[in-house]
Amino acid sequence: MVITLAAPPLADGMVCGDWVSGGLINPVNIVRYQIGKPTPALDGISPATQDLVTPQTGDAQLNSILLQTGDQYRTELIRSEFVDTGALTLMAPAANMPPAGEVVTQYAVDLKFSASVRPVGTNPSSITRLDGDVPAQAAIIAATPPQRFVGLTVRLSTRTRVPDQKTSLVTNPRARFDVFGGNAAGTSSHFARVRTLVQEVSLANLGGISW
Q: Domain residues of the chain, as ranges?
């Protein structure tokens, strides 16, 4: 999932950090978090990082081992920074700066977001929680001005590299959970244990400010 927060256009002569309509604005960073197989071209990671997380499939014997350990189907949590040039473009790092993308967590299998917002025209104490995986609610998140976000909830799941159970603990497992010799149909005889971290992130966007 990608959540992009875009600020409304500034009046002529305004710069970041000015007071606009009673509120202090800050630069908007466009950052994408996603689960997948990272590449330099699409995610901005370095070739060396790609080598570290890409299984070496040089021969049949090695392929068999990687299939049993689940490395052939591994996915990572990738963080990439973008600039808005009319279309989102990977940020070009300056000299001696790190690349635009990085692998945050290896063997990541699931990432979910929800947002707590104060809708326009409602009581200031009214907070609505929106699930980013529900299309109708995700559309509301995308249309909500950034100053109305009160908090974000992030849920990240990672798996073990080696199999540690023969029965899936995930209902209707998807391919990235069913990784040890299996496929999307769920034919594996070995499964990864999944660990989940949930974090509530409070945002000080609305403290004492009337929008």
A: 19-202
